[in-house]
User: Fold this.
Amino acid sequence: MGEEHVVPIPDAIGPFATRAIAVSELLPDIAWPRQIELRAGKHMVRPRYEVLERGRRRIAHVNVERGDLKPDPALPKLEAVLGKGYLLPAPLMPLESWQSLVLPTPMAVCQADLPIAALVYDPEGREVLRHFFGRLPRAHATVLDLDEIDGLDALGGGYGHIELVYDFSAGGEGDGWLHALFRYRHRHSGHAAETSFGAHVFNTILTYRDEPQSYAGRPPGLSTRLFLRLGEPAYDTFCHLIYPASRPWLPASDTEIILYDAAGCEVARSHLAIPCSGSRLWHYRSAFNGAIRARAGTGAYIIVRDETCRLFGYHGLAGGHGSFSLDHMFGF
Assistant:
């Protein structure tokens, strides 16, 4: 990416057909954390990719690169009214058990550089540290390994969350389409998972273009409704809920964790109060006791509901021997 070294896929792919492509054969000199882009016009659905590492296989999807955006000259001037403005929240998993890595990704063809900083918060919403990436060029291969920066001892081996924001202190341009890939590795088992997402403006009454985004109508979106799938009995479901705020909003969330059985009948509910700019990492087995989980049965699910603020969530399944999955949640 950014070098304009183009390698064609040699075989034609017919309508409704699929093809497995070995990236290591087409681009034998490419390795993490360098990035590639797939140029296929509008002729294919979003493909999946597989990573084979240490005898294990994981699967994810390629993110969407925008070709219809231009830099927004107003963004560097909006800090006074929008605060942090566009921000991208992601978990910082418990340091004792997980390694967390951040790879900023150019996701619009107009992006020549990425002026970015990373802010780390503890669960109570206190800023622990800031890491300045500077103006990353489009062809960068810069990954932030949280193990390698100073200041995280304030978390005491616990968890928190990361927010990527624009940092125009050294110049550069932004278009609001700020993305990154987040990779998590279990220290003891070696299992890994990754997810990617983009930035939004969160929890301010001020609107800019279509932000803060609302799934159910016009901006601002200031409420939460998230769906959480629950794993089968052999797996525990975990959920990392983040309360991001571009500007200071309500001091704490008023979040309901509502458990439903497979027929859609409410079984029980639990309450969370997440501090502004804080987060909560919780597990299904801890939130609801065995009797309640038995009553919910298989096929149960959870709705995360908050009428006071917009939360952003990540979820996953934890299995035996350190195996796990992790991805971002979608609202509705």
The chain has a mean pLDDT of 94. The chain is about 5% helix and 35% strand. The first strand starts at residue 48 and ends at 53. The helical segments are 23-26, 79-82, 284-287, 290-296.
